[in-house]
Amino acid sequence: MQHESALRAISNRLTVTPVDELPRIAGFLATQLANCPLNEHFANTKGSNSSVPVHKLKTRISSLVQERSAAGRFTAVVLIKAIIDNGGENALRASDSWARGLLNCLNKPDPIEVKKLYLITLTRIFILTQNDQTLSREITTPLLPSFIKASLGLVRPINVQKGAGSKAVSSPLLTPVLECWTRLLPRHASVFRPFLNQLRPICLSLVADVESSSLDRDLAIQLLCLLLWSAPRNTVAQEWNQMAANLIKAVHETASKLFRAVIEEHESNDSSLQITTGKHNFSKETKQVEVDLAGLHPWAGIYEGSDRLAALLSWLTCLVSTSTPESMLLPIGVALDLTSRVMSVTVPASKAGAADDLRYHKDASREEKEELWTHLPQIHMACLDLLHSLFSSYGQVLSPVQRTNVNQLLDLFENMSWHQDIRSGVYKIFSHQLERIDVSNLDINREALAKVLEHCCIDLKSGFAERVDSTPSALKTGAIQITSGSISGGTQETVASFSSRRPNVFEAAWVLLSQALRYCPGTLMSRRIRSDMDRIAVLLDHRDAMLSSILNPILSKEGKAANASLLPFVVRSAADEIAVEALLRPRMPFIAVGSSEIEHPSSQDGANGEHEGEDESDARMDTDILSQLEDSVEQQQNGTLETKDARPEGSSGSRDIPLNESQSSGAQKRLIDAVDSSVLEGNAIPSGEPDSRDSKRPRSGAVLEDTMLPEIQENSNEAAAGEYPMAQSLGFTAVSSQGQQFQVERQDMSMVSNASVPGGPPVDDGDSDDSEIPAIDPELDTDEEEDLE
């Protein structure tokens, strides 16, 4: 209901508003239409609530298309564009009459901007109908030829009065018409076939004209390559190969005339492309007197010749990169031979007599050579674009010649590194190739590659210096420390705004930095270059470069990292990124969340009851006996008895050990922290029952030493049943008091007494290993010493 009300409001607004005032609200009405479900409303649903407002809207737009004033036609084309973009298939079915009306509007004397809207809207209709055979048959097939004819009339040159005479200039609608043709031709190639003889001369004239804009020339070159789609069936490959061969020969012919002042040392592998060494007339300017093999008009002078050579190279680049309906075979060797010849001609070094200087004819004037040097960077840039296109289109096919290509690029960079565009082109090619080739197997000149990386760092530094200079003065006052944290923090917005206006060389160097750190082995770069690259990555907060440096460290002969890691800088500047988290997490120790102890509830059977505070000590008893205690030397010599009780009931802390006792112990013994009452139930022999064991007669000297241990061990075995293996093996006796409280007592094994031990027999508190029981020295027996006295 709401959308129907909106449609009624739009129709009413179009009806009641004067036509001259409609352009002011055309944008608002188009926005309202875009928010409505037009595909549903334009469906053929007779009797629905929306049929009436939709019919009024269509009728009003049709009347505006046929309006006499340009304001009404402008409003109509704006609304039609909004409807076909958002209305779907049903809206396209209703656009048949609108498309015919817009075709008639192309011939009316409307403003240039309004005619551009006509072209854009009609092109959009033809593109959207290509996937529906019915719509294509009803709209595109009958209307597209009329559109091409009308657009051909729009690109005719315009005669402009200039002084006493007139001069022909290009039409202001040339660029939009070329854009429409390049978009429609691959989709409707058969419709464009009858117009090939009219389209090709227009494009060739734009390519040959020196005064053509770069955009118009690029569109004309692209259209020339797309015209191959309209060739008759089974002749596309033949015409493509013929065009490529003609372009290569035209480049060589143009280069021979343009480089006549240079004594070229390049030798082509193709005998038909050998450089002819003839006598040149340097008194006249170089020129092309006839149409070349590519079909371009003659040229004269170094300026026009350089422009023509760059245009031919751009045409060949577009031909290689443009998709075709069939697979094509390009003579790669001939194309690379062409680039090798063009790139071998460079600007001489500043020093006279340098090793890379070219030889020139004596008759060539200095003015001709200097003018040639001025235009060489433009030609080299076209060559670099051709190489980049070849590498992108053919990929692994060029693997056998990768070494030659890379060395050519390095030589060109060494001679032409002073030019910014040359550096940018070389950076782009290396960034693309480092990911796809193994640089270590190409036998590259290490010094030349280091020079490329060094200039890459310099370009990044200069770009960052420009960013710092462009910051507000308030940010530059005082001592500002430029760190990765500061860039990623408070000045992140400044870096983002600067990235939108970075020069091309900075963008190319930015990509090359991360690619070189990731794929270049450490053997191809010195430690100084690597350190500079790491510093630049940290300074510019280049996270991809820092991660690449971390993943590809320089290894020493021992296989260890020889350079400092950038991991702390990455963590500081990009700790919230998932890539940094994935890099850090495997290096972190595992930390368990929650309690690591498992509580075991203690159960007690019988009448002993339930003891509180023993759960924690029970859990620790199964894994470790914490407290350790040892007999002192003084106790062994004096024979004094020292009984140490276990922790009281319910205590969960550890037992304190005296410092002097723990330090004087040689062989340490363990102490049970707590004993579960269920373990000691029913089988322990009470210490207060004298009838349960026979009293021992005290013996002296060696007799007591020989017989005491077996007797104590036997009594311990009798006191501990098979249910207490731990207590028996450790030499402890469990003593019961009223069946509620248990204590663990330890008896000194070195005691010698004439009286029985009160409360029970002597208890062996040694471990199961008898080697830890201290031996009794007979010489220290106090009883024998008293008898001797």
Automatic annotation (TrEMBL):
Region feature Disordered, mapped onto this chain: 598-618, 633-668, 681-709, 737-789
Taxonomy, superkingdom: Eukaryota
UniProt keyword annotations, A-Z: Nucleus
- Spell out the subcellular localization from the entry: Nucleus
Composition-biased stretches (Acidic residues): 764-789
Record-level GO BP terms: rRNA processing
Output the InterPro entries linked to this UniProt entry: ARM-type_fold, RIX1_N
Q: Which residues form the Pre-rRNA-processing protein RIX1 N-terminal domain?
A: 7-212
Question: Which residues lie in Polar residues bias regions?
Answer: 737-755
Question: What are the TM regions of this chain, as residue ranges?
Answer: none
Which Gene Ontology terms of cellular component type are present?
A: nucleus
Q: Which family does it belong to?
A: Belongs to the RIX1/PELP1 family.
User: What is the recorded name of this protein?
Assistant: Pre-rRNA-processing protein RIX1
Species this protein is from: Vermiconidia calcicola
